[in-house]
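Lecture 7 notes: from sequence to structure.
We start with the chain below.
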Amino acid sequence: MSPSKPPSVWPQADGTPVSCRDKLKVLAENHTELAQTMQDAFEDAVLMGVDEDAMRDLLWAMVDALDSPKISSRPG
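Predicted structure tokens for the same chain:
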């Protein structure tokens, strides 16, 4: 399975979509790069014997642990 395609809409905090072409380009590039990196890491882990569900859980845990660049936007 190939990495997912970037979303067609990137919602802002107020619900409106990001419309700046430069921002959309960066977001799409970041999405493509991250999707491929995650796919590579997932495949490496599974081929080295890591349980698929366990690896998915580890990747979700990494996402859940991301720090926001906004001050006090995340509890704990």
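Points to note: The mean pLDDT is 92. The longest helix spans residues 21-47.
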